[in-house]
UniProtKB/TrEMBL annotation:
Transmembrane segments: none annotated. This is Endonuclease. GO terms for molecular function: endonuclease activity. It comes from Pedobacter yulinensis. The keyword Lipoprotein does not apply. SUPFAM superfamilies: Xylose isomerase-like. Keywords: Endonuclease, Hydrolase, Nuclease. The keyword Cytoplasm does not apply. Gene3D superfamilies: Divalent-metal-dependent TIM barrel enzymes (3.20.20.150).
Length: 281
């Protein structure tokens, strides 16, 4: 009996050791997790493909989070498109397939409903799907209503900054628009679009300290409105300084890779960018 008990104890120790090594390997593979960063991809990066093809590409880039965008064909044997109006049974199917793929739906957007009724439906969709952050470019007049919904549902809405002349291209205006409304109402900092608008992404992040809820991550070949994506760390966005600022701010949330170039075969570009990102940490 003593031998049997000793053997069982030894197996327990070995199993615990294996789990510890697996946890350590996982931490090494995803160093951003220690900082509370959820590194993933905007499905728009793979908009030439259906949603579940995009999920497979995201997984191939060693990423575990997806920000879905409205209108993408679902695929994966499913009819319809990614839409906050989808039926409950379709939502369940999507979540089941995502779980099997090992990819978590974290964000949704950029989406801007046209009425309070549609905003409520969007929040109900986000709640049902486990979405933490909605990215949007809403009317300034709707922000009080949106802030109230944020408080009710405890779900973030992050204002996205397409390049000028879009409504929130200027970080100062975006911050003025959300001032004093809700901790769940903040910014989706698209650092590439800031560069396209002639702004310094690090300076913009410093101004937005405490209000950055979500990131759209890009590096561009030059500082101009016509710039295109390049591998992170090789362009004009000063990625190392951006990472240092996010660390200094103790940013928590999703960092969505957006690689809007080489559309038909950009998964290797995303993978190379992710490898640089993790080595830079």
């Amino acid at each position: 009996m003593k031998k049997i008990l000793f053997g069982l104890a030894l197996l327990g120790v070995l199993a615990g050791g294996c789990k510890s090594r697996q946890a350590g390997q996982q931490a090494g593979a995803y160093p951003e997790e220690k900082l509370g960063w959820k590194l993933g991809s905007q499905a728009y990066t793979f908009n030439r493909f259906d949603f579940f093809q995009a999920v497979a590409k995201i997984d191939s880039c060693k990423l575990r989070y997806v920000e879905a965008f409205p209108g993408q064909r679902l695929g994966g044997g499913m009819e319809g498109r990614m839409d906050f109006r989808m039926k409950p049974e379709v939502r369940e199917q999507v979540l089941t397939k995502l779980k099997a793929a090992g990819v978590t739906l974290y964000g949704f957007g950029v989406v801007t409903p046209g009425s309070e009724k549609d905003w409520k439906q969007l929040f109900e969709f986000a709640k049902a799907m486990g979405i933490r952050t909605i990215t949007s470019e809403p009317k300034v007049a709707d922000l009080d209503m949106i802030a109230s919904l944020c408080e009710t549902y405890k779900i973030n809405v992050a204002l996205h900054n397409h390049p000028k002349p879009s409504i929130y291209w200027n970080v100062d205006f975006a911050l003025e628009s959300i001032a004093g409304k809700s901790k769940y109402l903040g910014l989706c900092a698209d650092i590439g679009h800031w560069v396209r608008s002639g702004l310094d992404p690090v300076a913009c992040l410093k101004k937005a300290r405490g209000h950055v809820l979500h990131m759209h991550f890009k590096d561009l070949n030059e500082r101009s409105a016509k710039a295109h994506d390049v591998h992170w760390g090789s362009g004009a966005s000063d990625i190392p300084a951006v990472l240092a600022e996010l660390k200094a701010q103790r940013f928590k949330g999703m960092i969505s890779a957006e690689y809007e170039y080489n559309w038909r075969n950009n998964a290797p570009d995303v993978a190379a960018s992710v490898a640089f990102f993790r080595s830079a940490l």
